[in-house]
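Supplementary Methods S3. Complex input for the magnesium ion-bound model.
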Amino acid sequence: QNVIETGALFLRYLPEVDMRTGKVLATEALVRWQHPTRGLLAPDSFIGVAESINLAGELGRWVMRTACADFARWREGGVGLDAVLRVNVSPVQLVADGFAESVAAIVSEFGLPRGSVCLEITESIVVQDIDVTRITLAKLHDVGIQVAIDDFGTGYSVLSLLKSLPVDALKIDKSFVRDLGADPGDLAIVRAIIALAEAFGLQLVAEGVETETAAITLLRHGCHRAQGFLLSRPIASDQMEALLRRGRVSVDFSAGLA
Ligand code: C2E
Ligand code: MG
Ligand code: MG
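Predicted complex, serialized as structure tokens:
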């Protein structure tokens, strides 16, 4: 019996917010493993192992299916109709045979409209397997599934590929966001990424906003979509549904912007 069959996996959801208004724009599914002896495990501690024993595909399909089922249920109740569901994809999954078809089948089984689901991939895969990646991303694009580059800025440089790959969004890695306002080097990197996103017409999301200073610095430089512990911790499915029903979190960075 593998971890998926034991029923010990579950999802948390991290809201993505427009920091100008507090509106919840998207929600990211994050997998957790309630381990019988080791307690609650974060994905970084088991995704790599799952990949090494060829469970990445099965794990990825479980996450995709479970997140789409939740999202479809919320939508049936009229909740989150203009929100986007974001799902992380591991490198091994993305280049596996039939990946795009399998994602498309799940999304259509749950009747989710074009543009409402976004896959998050990391820079490293894009570079490693560029030919397979290009074909897969094109197929995803054709069926209306969005793609975001996660942890942007930490991997290899995909700057030249941004103009040729069908990518919809960049997510600024949290290592550049955490100390924003204090570290001039981080600000320089963030400003460069903001300019890049603008030039290529990509959506831009800042990850790991923990402080008001970081939020205000991002807003000042024109990045208003963000996620992070300042805005919300990862929350359970029914809490995410309630948050989407409310539609917004409370934010007020206006004093810092004046
Ligand atoms: P990620 O996709 O970049 O997700 C954001 C991670 O940053 C999450 O950690 C989230 O809890 C954390 N985070 C959010 N806001 C803050 C903040 O303000 N401060 C700090 N310090 N952390 C913040 P988590 O859930 O432990 O996930 C870690 C990584 O594991 C994810 O990074 C993603 O790459 C991967 N992952 C998560 N779920 C899945 C999944 O279902 N499949 C795959 N393949 N990978 C996943
Ligand atoms: Mg992510
Ligand atoms: Mg990230």
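Residues 150-151, 171, 173, 207 surround magnesium ion (ligand 3) (CB under 6 Å). The CA atoms of residues 15 and 27 lie 4 Å apart.
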